[in-house]
Amino acid sequence: IDMLFYNVLEWRYYVIEVKVKKFEPSDIGQIGTYMVAVNHQLKQPDDQQTVGLVICREQDRVTVQYALESSSLPIGVSDYVLERFIPADFKSQLPTIEEVESELTRRMEIAEQVRGLR
């Protein structure tokens, strides 16, 4: 789980999965698994239904619709555009989105290699 929140006003957990790639239908299965785990391990009888949110680099609405129809869990999918949140005067001082994604991918590959050595 990338992020797990509990809303004290709604009495519910929010499971959030952030993807640095385009949405894939398998993302629904992954977050659904996390939601079920939260329901089994954390959710109390008085809590409301757990909600899932997949935030991805980009999405195809038809693919998302078909993937969501395969699940009975309350899951939403949204995309993000990081450039909207960067003030114009800082843009020249920051790495590009592609550079950040490349570095994240590189670090994830290293982490996978380290896990494989254990």
Question: What report would you give on this structure?
Answer:
The protein is 42% helix and 19% strand. By secondary structure, the chain is α/β, with parallel strands linked by helices. The chain starts with a strand and ends with a helix.
Features of the shown structure:
single chain; 118 residues; alpha/beta; four-stranded mixed β-sheet; 4 helices; 4 strands; 42% helix; globular
Write the layout of secondary structure elements.
Blueprint: E1 3-7, E2 12-18, H1 26-41, E3 51-56, H2 61-69, E4 75-79, H3 88-91, H4 97-117
Parallel strand pairs: 2-3, 3-4
Antiparallel strand pairs: 1-2
Shape: globular
Largest sheet: 4 strands, mixed
Largest sheet: spatial strand order: 1-2-3-4
Overall number of strands:
4
Q: H/E element string?
A: EEHEHEHH
Mean pLDDT: 89
Strand content: 15-25%
Structural class: alpha/beta
| Cα end-to-end separation | 22 Å
pLDDT < 50 runs, ≥5 residues: none
User: Which radius of gyration do the C-alpha atoms yield?
Assistant: 17 Å
Helix proportion of residues, in percent? Answer: 40-55%
